[in-house]
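INTERNAL AUDIT FORM
Audit reference: QA-55
Scope: verify that the stored structure record matches its stored sequence.
Auditor: D.O.
Record contents follow.
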Amino acid sequence: MTKKSEFRSRLLSGEELVGMFVKTPHHMNVEVMANTGLDFLILDQEHSPFDVSAIDTCLMAGRSADMPMFVRIQQNTATGMLYPLDCGATGVVVPHVATVEKAMEIAGGGRYRGGTRGFAGTQRAGGYGTRHMRDYIDEADSETVIVAQIEDVEAVKNIEEIVKIEDIDCLFLGRMDLTVGYGAKTQHDDVVIEAVKHVCSVAQKAGKRIAAYSGLAEKDKLRELGVTVFTVGSEHNLIQNGISETLKAFHNFKA
């Protein structure tokens, strides 16, 4: 497992990191998943019913285990980033970053010095007012991770400009939304594959890290494209698969 304070440095160094999404807005799921050896967890506010209270308690549970915690925010704005970061998130995953203007907005929203992040030293991330302002800002600016989801046709067209934004640490490939955007049938259609290859090529040349969802069968292909950060599903997948396999084993068992 990667310690929270080490995550950004390990990410930028190109180490392989493996994490999962959390779909259920309850701290117990986070506590269980934080003790499995995963490198990070992502609370999925975009597609799951996380309100601010659930984000707060789930981030607290993750921090208690020193688990790097991210929030995929619902609103892709600097304002939408602020509360998760104040609550102690390691970083944010921002959906639908399709223009250089949006990339600049979220990059600024994640940094104090040279950015636009509003200061609040009385929140969890600031030690509830017990930390020196300078020390807290230094730590936040050096450890906060900003991940931009590239999942729109427009984003692919603008990728050469998006990767120039320094404080975007990682690009998350949104292959399913790209499939929809291109009018393709599956993420394995040629138009989607070529778009992904283009994004990865440009990202690598710019020194940006790349993240993607991966099944076992496509892991090596994604590695070849430069992906170093992998998500391998969510606890919902594990529950469904676990129950299905248990039932199958039960019905097939013969003493």
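Auditor finding: record pair retrieved intact. The mean pLDDT is 97.
Action required: none
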